[in-house]
Amino acid sequence: MRENIVVVGVDNSDTAFRAAEAAAEIAIAFGARLHVVSAFEDDRTEVYGVGSDKWIESGATFAERVAKKVASDLTWPEGREEISYIAARGKPADAIIDEAERVQARLVVVGNRRMQGLGRILGSIANTVAHGADCDVYIVNTVGEGD
């Protein structure tokens, strides 16, 4: 049986945050948990440093930081279970679909960025998720809002 979980796919864009805000509103309205997913495709790492201070940044680290920031910036009622977040390996649409299946989500929320013009013909994350998810998908209209 599916749990009452809403999954939202995010990247580091304002439009993805608007989709996450809509997902949070839906989760709150239906008493669902919210699970924020940010994808990374490879294990490439970069080393940064200043003097003797060094740190390593990987795709997974960056994606987790993005998901955590989105989760922490959302408005969420006190006393409710915290929003969960994860960095998921794979192309964005595949990672979102796989994570939704893993947590047995009832709903996946994505923004409609790249669903216009040539993107509509060649495909988009929202289009791929809508056709590949084994649960309901809500595509948030994030286009034209200051973009």
TrEMBL record:
Domain UspA, chain residue ranges per copy: 5-140
Signal peptide: none
Superkingdom of the source species: Bacteria
InterPro entries: Rossmann-like_a/b/a_fold (IPR014729), Universal_stress_UspA (IPR006015), UspA (IPR006016)
Record CDD domains: USP-like
SUPFAM superfamilies xrefs: Adenine nucleotide alpha hydrolases-like
One Pfam family, short name: Usp
Family the entry assigns: Belongs to the universal stress protein A family.
Protein name, UniProt field: Universal stress protein
Organism phylogeny: Bacteria, Bacillati, Actinomycetota, Actinomycetes, Micrococcales
